[in-house]
Write a structure and sequence with these properties.
Layout lengths: L11 E14 L2 E14 L3 E5 L6 H8 L7 E6 L2 E2 L5 H11 E5 L10 H5 L1 H4 L8 H11 L15 H13 L5 E5 L7 H16 L4 E4 L3 H4 L4 E6 L2 E6 L14
Parallel strand pairs: 3-8, 3-9, 6-7, 7-8
Antiparallel strand pairs: 1-2, 1-4, 4-5, 9-10
């Protein structure tokens, strides 16, 4: 893949054209995404909602190049991912995508600093300032004094802060969060959501899967899925902020 053009607010970050994802369960075929077409623009903050089995997690997995579509086209920053092999998809994930999961998905053998740098380990040409980036992000999420602690020595909220720092270390075009506050107490969840608010205000593109109205109410746009299709889109419930340093 050639180097992508610099991103600007309003240009597509992720584009799905007639995407389907069908799973086989024994003799039964289950359609998780059904002729799904949509464009997510740079700088947007989306909540994706829907009942169990509506296709939320499958959509996130396709957007994150974790799962391949059965049919259709998925582009990341204009690049068609359809014909990429596993190594190339791994490179796309490590360079352009950031993930925040409900269960944190930290590597228990690594400390905070090392966990934050994990996406850089998978890049063919990792940046020379990776350690500096990780330290700065640890400071930002309030863990600068715990760089050498392992996940088992951290609270759930602290682990999720590590996961957010890890998601940012490659300066991703798209941040994907799957029920990122689901395992947290209400106060810690609020702190994590405030951090997402800050990232959106800086111009980051965020797609957050949630079943909680209190979470979706903080986002800019809401998409509701049903049976693998878009049931409803609610736009501009919270207008996009102007990133710091941008002209108004």
């Amino acid at each position: 893949m050639s180097a992508p053009a610099p991103r600007q607010n309003g240009e597509p970050v992720a584009e799905l054209e007639h995407v389907s994802r069908i799973y086989r369960m024994g003799e039964t075929l289950v359609t998780a995404l059904d002729d799904f077409s949509f464009r997510f623009q740079a700088g947007e903050y989306w909540a994706v909602m829907g009942s169990s089995g509506s296709g939320k997690s499958t959509l996130l997995n396709v957007l994150g190049c974790i799962d391949r579509p059965t049919g259709g086209i998925y582009r990341v920053r204009g690049h068609d991912t359809s014909d990429l092999d596993d190594d190339q998809l791994s490179e796309v994930r490590s360079r352009h995508l950031g993930f925040v999961f409900q269960s944190y998905n930290l590597i228990p053998q690594l400390n905070v600093l090392e966990n934050i740098q994990v996406p850089l380990f998978y890049q063919d040409d990792p940046p020379p300032d990776g350690d500096e980036r990780a330290r700065a992000l640890a400071d930002r999420v309030g863990l600068g004094s715990r760089l050498h602690h392992r996940p088992t020595e951290l609270s759930g909220g602290q682990q999720q802060r590590v996961a957010i720092a890890r998601a940012l270390v490659n300066d991703p075009a798209l941040i994907l969060a799957d029920e990122a506050t689901g395992n947290l107490d209400s106060q810690t969840a609020l702190e994590i959501l405030e951090l997402f608010d800050e990232l959106h205000a800086e111009g980051k593109t965020i797609i957050l899967v949630t079943h909680e109205p209190d979470v979706s109410n903080r986002t800019q746009h809401v998409m509701r899925l049903k049976d693998g299709r878009i049931e409803e889109v609610q736009r501009d419930q919270n207008p996009a902020p102007v990133p710091a340093g941008s002209a108004r």
